[in-house]
Design brief:
The protein has 319 residues and is of the alpha+beta class. The protein has a domain of 124 residues: Transferase(Phosphotransferase), domain 1, CATH 1.10.510. Helix content is 47%, strand content 16%. Strands 1, 2, 3, 4, 5, 6 and 7 form a seven-stranded antiparallel β-sheet that branches. A three-stranded antiparallel β-sheet has the order 8-10-11. The radius of gyration is 23 Å and the shape is globular. The model has no long low-confidence stretch (mean pLDDT 87).
């Protein structure tokens, strides 16, 4: 009995030390440690794990494409295109089953190769603003409109997007499905979401948010890259209520919750990555090449990381 009392007293002392000394010392530095951990994880993926993961998904390509038949897809006719005109010839089919419809620029405008496409913002060759990171083409695949994303040798971003779409698609997130994958050339082909990009709707109300508009504004071009990015938020918040209501904002937040429940951090919340789907009016999310999954972290540690997503969301939408 005395031994048990001594043991219980000792454990209580240890618990008191943990509560009064250890936790107060650890909690302030934990966010910094988690940011460092995220950086190490990204570095390890880039220089070591990306190649291994590509080999894994190459062997499991069928599982990766398993949602293709059930996911969101847009037929070429829905965009006012003639199926016969975008069907590849026999000679072309032997080289590729895709037909290029156009190229997408930095602001999401289409340089079309098949003429005007209904409800798709377009530009001329002279107006085209080259993309800064990854190439995007609009292609037709088996009668469906798709977006082909070329990662330009960036294996870690390629893997991030694969894993995000695989897990988040199964979590029921509103997002495109992967229609095709080329492991040799590092390209993913996604289903096309028919709708309006939120950024473009805000720009149409006068917000200076497009890259081409910022480059034409001397006061903004003198700012650093991060500051220019942050300056877009108050510009968009100024006209946000003219485009979407509180219910739509809650729908976006519900999608973000799905991402976090699947143990992912999106890391790329911005107006250009949200599409207002034309039929349902619901938000669809795109661009997950910065997303990372953290199944190994405990709940509290993961919540600290996910709170950064939520903080950015609140900055953008004022929830």
């Amino acid at each position: 009995m005395p031994v048990a009392l001594i043991r219980n007293g000792f454990l209580r002392c240890l618990y008191a030390v943990y509560i009064c000394i250890v936790l107060p010392a650890v909690i302030p530095v934990l966010p910094v440690c988690l940011r460092l951990y995220t950086l190490i994880k990204r570095t390890a993926l880039k220089y070591y794990f990306a190649e291994k993961k590509i080999r894994y998904w190459r062997q499991n390509k069928e599982a990766l494409l398993s949602l293709t038949d059930k996911g969101y897809k847009t037929k070429v006719q829905q965009l006012g295109l003639d199926l016969e005109k975008v069907r590849p010839s026999e000679d072309a089919r032997q080289q590729s089953h895709k037909v290029e419809l156009g190229e997408i620029d930095q602001d999401g405008f289409l340089l079309s190769k098949v003429g005007e496409i209904s409800n798709v913002p377009s530009v001329s060759k002279k107006q085209f603003l080259a993309r800064k990171r990854f190439g995007l083409r609009v292609v037709a695949v088996d009668g469906y409109v798709c977006i082909e994303k070329h990662y330009k040798g960036n294996k870690s971003s390629f893997v991030n997007e694969i894993e995000a779409h695989y897990h988040l698609g199964r979590a029921g997130c509103n997002m495109p499905v992967i229609m095709d994958v080329d492991f040799d050339n590092l390209t993913l082909t996604f289903s096309y979401i028919s709708g309006r990009v939120l950024r473009e709707e805000l720009a149409g109300r006068g917000a200076i948010v497009r890259d081409r508009d910022i480059e034409e504004n001397p006061g903004l071009t003198r700012s650093g890259k991060r500051k220019r990015s942050m300056n877009r938020i108050p510009e968009c918040r100024r006209v946000l209520s003219d485009v979407i209501d509180s219910q739509f904002i809650e729908l976006i937040f519900a999608e973000l919750n799905k991402i976090h429940k699947a143990r992912f951090i999106w890391n790329d919340i911005k107006y250009g990555n949200i599409i207002i789907e034309e039929r349902s009016g619901k938000p669809y999310l795109i661009d997950f090449d910065w997303a990372l999954r953290f199944p190994e972290l405990g709940k509290k540690a993961f919540n600290i990381l996910s709170n950064r997503d939520i903080e950015k969301f609140n900055m953008c939408f004022g929830r």
